[in-house]
Known about the structure:
373 residues; EC 7.6.2.9; ATP hydrolysis activity; four-stranded antiparallel sheet; 2 domains; CBS-domain; Rossmann fold
Amino acid sequence: MIVFDDVVKRYPDGTVAVDHLSLTVPEGTLTVFVGPSGCGKTTSLRMINRMIDPTAGTITLGGVDVMTRDANQLRRGIGYVIQHAGLFPHRRVVDNVATVPRLLGVSRKQARTRAYELLERVGLTAEHGNRYPSQLSGGQQQRVGVARALAADPPVLLMDEPFSAVDPVVRKDLQTELLRLQGELHKTVVLVTHDIDEAITLGDRVAVMRPGGTLAQYSTPDELLTNPADDFVADFLGLDRGVRLLSFFPSNGVPLRTDNVAADGDSVPPDDDWILITDENRRPLGWLNGPVATGERASETQGLISFGHTFTPGSDSLRAALDSAVLSPAGYAVAVDGDGRVLGVVSQESLAAHIRLSHGHARSVRPGTATAP
Ligand SMILES: Nc1ncnc2c1ncn2[C@@H]1O[C@H](COP(=O)(O)OP(=O)(O)OP(=O)(O)O)[C@@H](O)[C@H]1O
């Protein structure tokens, strides 16, 4: 557990970077510090591993004031990942990862074996390990940065804008990878970003900081989206926070129709505008708009319209279901099971009603939000 207690950082030129910050990062969770440029995120992060010392207040790690710890020894228990990975360019990737274990006295052979294991863990191969950093893509270098930070198996991981230097697709991959790793490793992670979407995707808890280094709000992502503390937080979250909130609601329980789903070649009800045609294994083929003669295969005679992307109740969110319905030419989202077989379809209108119900339920169970608009 990391505890900031009334922490202030004033730089020698008088700039107050962090202003009376108090918050607790629970053990084994991922906390994100987010906010506009210059609001004190990096300064706060670096005070944890004593790269910067606070002017006032205390930071404790596992109950011990970090200022009472030897800085080098403290840092051995704290992995640190930065933007652009910060790898040693003249050392092979595997030796970059093995650096800290070597410093800690692990034999070269053992350190390399562990480094190859870690590279695999972050989605790289031994072949990547044998290259130099410049021979890897930016995203791969970031993965090496994560592997290197994990090499000494530290209980705490600090990540400063770790994915900012890569393109959005790679960034999404790296975020997914981090969540998967965290699901296995349960480190106490503090991650700095200026990207609120990244914060909401990754954080168990999110600390929104405002210019001047004060804490605007510290809560779970769904609480943040439901109940922003003030206009600054609401503006920072952006206009579509209602839709983003749907990411936190499961899609199981949405009312599915099956009466307008038919296997190719089966007779279809005559009075429904849109019929979803499936193959014999109930995998979707496309939408049929209009009548089809009995015995004919709609897929051969009618030209089916793409069903777009599907969603899986239980594993996908209400946001995914709504997206599927909005993008569907028929106005219906197609629900499939884990094997891609059609479970049914749900219209935009039914989803809207279900979303209203889900929101109502969320409000009624969340303390202090019963009167929220
Ligand atoms: N060494 C320093 N001396 C004086 N002021 C500094 C120093 N380092 C940072 N600052 C100032 O402290 C404030 C907080 O900086 P910090 O880097 O912590 O912000 P940040 O939220 O991480 O910003 P960014 O998202 O742009 O990286 C800024 O106003 C910055 O200019």
